[in-house]
Amino acid sequence: AGLSEPFLVEVERALTAHELIKVRMGGADRQARADLATSLCDRTGAAAVQTVGKVLVLWRPRPEEPEA
Prior knowledge:
Blueprint: H1 5-18, E1 20-24, H2 30-44, E2 47-52, E3 55-59
Antiparallel strand pairs: 1-3, 2-3
């Protein structure tokens, strides 16, 4: 499977809007899920806050908006 471009776009949108999101990862292999989480963090600039089972919690600070 891996990280598709539409999936990455949606993760970027969610992180920008909410800062903290949950991502459910499929697959039975724990190492494959860990590799996927690392790749997702690298590609989005987010930090993996917690992993519980197949759920990964990601955090990335929202970009500061310039004051008007």
